[in-house]
Amino acid sequence: PGEVNLSASASTGASMVCTGFVFTYPAIYLLAYSPKYELAGGNYLVDSSLLLPDSWALAGVAMVASILGGFLGCLYFIIFRRVWLVEDPLPLPGFEANIKLMDIAGETSKEGGMDSAMHSIRLVGLSTAVVMFFTFLRDWPILGTGTKDAAGDEVKQSVLASISEGVDWYDGVDLMVPMDHKLTNYTWLGFELTPMMGAIGWFMRFRVALLVSLGTFFTWFVVTPLAYTAGGGEGYPFYYPITGNFQSVAQFDPVASIYSYSYVARPMAIGAILGGGITGLLKMAPVFRTTAADVIDVFTGEGDDASRRDYIEGKGWYEWPISHIPVLLIVSLIGITLTFSTQFGFFASFIFSLVLCLTTFALGAIAVKVMGETSIEPVSGTSFIVLLMLVLIFKAIGLNESDTAILALVGTTVFGGAISMSGTVIGDYKPGLYVGNRPMHIMKTELVGIVPGTIVAALFAGLLSLALAKGDLILYAPQANAFAAFAQIMLGGQTPYDLLIVGVVIGVFMELLTGMGTAFGLGMYLPMIITLPMVVGGGLRDYWEAKFLDVSVEKEGLTEKERTMRLLNTYMIATGC
Predict the structure, then answer these.
(1) CA-to-CA distance for 285 and 292, rounded, in angstroms?
(2) How confident is the model at residue 443, as a pLDDT?
(3) Which segments of 213-317 are extended strands (E)?
(4) Comparing C-alpha atoms, which of 202, 208, 212, 213 is closest to residue 544?
(5) Which helix (H) or strand (E) holds 148?
(6) Exposed (0-12), middle (13-18) or buried (19+): which is 313, by Cβ within 10 Å?
(7) In Å, how far are 277, 301, 310 from 307, measured between CA atoms?
(8) Fewest beta carbons less than 10 Å away: which of 437, 441, 512, 545?
(9) Secondary structure letter of residue 54 according to DSSP
(10) Separation between Cα atoms, residue 293 and residue 289, nearest integer Å
(11) For the chain, which residues score pLDDT lower than 50?
C-alpha cells in the first residue's frame, strides 16, 4: 500500500502540472491562426510571426517556469498539512476509494493477486481493442469517393461515412439534425458516437454529468433560440470580427444557432466562468483569516509540534523542512523573471513573476481548502482571475496587444500548473496518513514527477496547439477556447460587456444554487453532441448499480471488497474506452 501511495504521488506530480498546458497554452495559437478568432481586415490578435521562429523557445520558457511554479505550489502545502490533515482534517470526498484500492493491494500482495491483475488487464485490453476498431471504421479515410481535392488527390472517407452517405440525420460520426433543417436556426441537436465521453460520464455518474451539462442545455435550449427570435424575429445583433461590423443572427439562416453559439453564448459563458469562480472564492473568504493564522503559527512555532522539523538519523526528515519555502520563493522569483526575460522585457517579466508567486500562495490556500471540502479544484476560476490581472497590468505598463496576449497566456499557463499542484497534493497526503508514509517521502515523489510531466507537456503543447489552431486536430478544447475568447474580448474587437455581465450574473446564481458555477459556464461552451453521451454514460452507471450491482449485493451477499472489485471491473472497461 505504501508503494502504491508513492507511485500515485509521482503520477499526480507528472499529470497535474500539465493542467496549464491543456487549459491555457493552446489559446495563444488559436489567437494567431484559428479563423474563429480572426479580426476585421484578416488580422489576428497574436502576430503569428512571433510564434513560428520561437515556438520552441516559448514552450521552453513555459516549461522552465512551470517546473519552478509546480515546485512552489507543491511546497506551499507543507504549511497547511498538519492543520487540514491532522488537527482539523478536511473530508476530501472520494478519497475512500484510494484507501480501498490500497487495502486491496495490501491483501493481494500477501495472498498473490496475479489472477485479479490479469483479469483487469484483459478487460482494459478487450475494451480498448473494440473501441479502436469502431473508431477506425468511424474516422479512418480508406475508401475513395471519386472526387479530387485542390491538390489533385482523391478525397477519401471512412467506412461509416461511406455507409451514411445520403443519410440526412447521420454523417458517420454524429447523429444530428441536418444543417439545412429549419430547426438549426433555433438550436443544434445531436449525439456524437464517442465511447470516450460515455466513459467519462460513467466515472462521473449521472448527477455530476447532468450538472456539468446544464450549461450546455441552457445554451442550446434557451440562449440560441432567444438570440434568433430577438427583436421581433430580426435576431440579436452581434459584432462579427471577420467583417468588422454588427450583424444580425437571423442573417445566417439556416445555421443561425451556430452563430448564436459562437458570438452570443460564448461571451456569456466566459462571464459565467468568472462569476462562478469569483463567487466560489468569496464563499471561502473565512479561509483567508484562518490561513493567515496558520501561517503565522507555523513560522513562529506557536502551537507547533517540534517533531515536524526533527531530523531522524538514518531515516531523514519526517516532514520537508518548512524553511525551504522562502528559499524556493526567492529562487522562483529570480528564475522565472530571468526565464521570461529571454522572450519579453525584464520589467514585464519581473511583474509577472511577482504576481505568480503571490497568487500561487494566496489562491493556493483556497485551492487546497476547496479541494479538501468538495474534491473539486477551482483551477479555471482562479486562472481567469490571474489572466484578468495580468492583462490589466501589462496594458497599464504599455505593452502592445500581441505581446500582452502572449505573455498573459503563457503566464496563466504557468499559474495553472502551480495552482493544480497546490490543490491536488492533498489527495496523496491524506491516504498517506492511513498507510504510514512519511510526508517527506510523498513530497519527494510529487516533486520528482513534476519534471518529466512538464517536459512532456511542453513538448506536445507546441505541436498539438498548432494543429488544433489550424484545424488539423479536431478537438473542442473548451478551456483553451474560453481563455482565447476572453483574451480577445479584453484586447481586441468590440467587447460585449452586456453579454459578459449577463453571464456573470448567471455564474453567480449557479454557484450559489449548485456550487458548480464554473462547471456550468464551461458547459455553455460545449455542443449538445458532446454532452449527451456523457449524460447517457452517467445514467447507465446509476442504472447498472441500482438494477444489477446492488441486487447482486443483496442476493449473493457480496462483501464490501467484492462489491468494490465488481465496480472496479467497470472502471477497467471505461478506461479502455
Answers:
(1) 12
(2) 93
(3) 237-240, 245-248, 311-312, 316-317
(4) 202
(5) strand 143-148
(6) exposed
(7) 38, 11, 5
(8) 512
(9) T
(10) 6
(11) 303-308
